[in-house]
Amino acid sequence: MAKKLVIKVTAGTDAPERCSQAFTVAAVAAASGVEVSLWLTGESAWFALPDRAADFELPHSAPLPDLLDSILAGGRVTLCTQCAARRDITEKDVLEGVRIAGAQVFVQEAMADGAQALVY
């Protein structure tokens, strides 16, 4: 089993099933004791902001705020630097526990010994 799971989610409300799948996999992995790093990129960047996950709806899926809370409690959530800049999101805007970092950090995490990376 991978020691670390790095998940990059590029979808938000524009592709709700793909978005929900990424958050669900991350939350289940974190609950299972896997070290999880969830990267918010593209349209999922908005979920780094308070209350944005509450606006997300997808029938027959777990509520996004609950998934995000469990990921933050048991893993790490990172907002892409460029994605944040394009949306005028700064460190002071994001949820507590969300960091902003760039591609170099993503590559380091994804290439770490024992890491597995997924992109949604």
UniProtKB/TrEMBL annotation:
Alphabetical list of Pfam families matching this protein: DsrE
Domain of life per record: Bacteria
InterPro entries: DsrEFH-like (IPR027396), Sulphur_relay_DsrE/F-like (IPR003787)
Protein name as catalogued: Sulfur reduction protein DsrE
Native source species: Streptomyces pilosus
Organism placement in taxonomy: Bacteria, Bacillati, Actinomycetota, Actinomycetes, Kitasatosporales
